[in-house]
Amino acid sequence: ESVNVPAMAAFAALPVEQRAHILSSKTEYRAIYAELKDAAIPVSRETGLLLYMLARNAKASSIVEFGTSFGISTLHLAAALRDNGGGKLITTEFEPSKAQRARDNLSAGGLLDLVEIREGDALETLRGGLPDQIDLLLLDGAKGLYADVLALVENRLRPGALIVADNADYCAEYVAKVRDPEGGYLSLPLPGDVELSMKRG
Ligand SMILES: C[S@@+](CC[C@H](N)C(=O)[O-])C[C@H]1O[C@@H](n2cnc3c(N)ncnc32)[C@H](O)[C@@H]1O
């Protein structure tokens, strides 16, 4: 279904239902994020801390992230990899200037060697070349694509792997999937509009 994407100021002034409709679009996401290309729109401080704590506790060495932006969540996750003794984080971003800012931030933090930034649409960049075992997945790109991105990586998630989905209120299809008792996951909502899920097995 096609939706009309207004400029950022106009977007902010829209009623909440209309904003949700636009954000959840599976077709107009490129235009939405082009409007937001100079905006960091990072995870909250609390969600960043949560990511670091979960990755440490899971002893993660293999992490995948959908939606890099300026790399705030990436810094938290890569710091956890470093403190776990090393590993690899694959993250993906389709706005080239954002990928560059993330690279600069990771470099300033001394963490770039742990991170592979795949430039392009996650639906392409995460289609192949994934590690055999993924310990943690962060979903923070276009809200309408969470279920599709999960489908691309799910056979690589190890039993017990954690998935953190930010802005879950805009991701009805995804939330229904991870909460389905037959769907292969355990899942619960956390404060801050985060859905935390675990691959069963
Ligand atoms: C909410 S921001 C990510 C914030 C980041 N996780 C942080 O905490 O700093 C979402 C980002 O995902 C990117 N994005 C959205 N859909 C994408 C897609 N299909 N493929 C690649 N990047 C995408 C957008 O350009 C935007 O920079």
Number of H- or I-type helical stretches: 9
- Count of the domains: 2
Order of helices and strands: HHHHEHEHEHEHEHEE
Q: How is the CATH topology of the largest domain named?
A: Rossmann fold
How far is it from the N-terminal to the C-terminal residue, by CA? 36 Å
User: What multimeric state do the chains show?
Assistant: single chain
Describe this structure in words.
The protein is 39% helix and 22% strand. A seven-stranded mixed sheet has the order 3-2-1-4-5-7-6, sandwiched between helices. It folds into two domains: 36 residues, no CATH class; 155 residues, Rossmann fold. The protein has nine helices and seven strands; from the N terminus they run H-H-H-H-E-H-E-H-E-H-E-H-E-H-E-E. The chain is globular, with a radius of gyration of 16 Å. By secondary structure, the chain is α/β, with parallel strands linked by helices. Helix 8 packs across helix 9. It starts with 7 loop residues before the first helix and ends with a strand. Strand 1, helix 5 and strand 2 form a beta-alpha-beta unit. The structure holds S-adenosylmethionine. The site of S-adenosylmethionine has 24 residues, from helix 3, helix 5, strand 2 and helix 7.
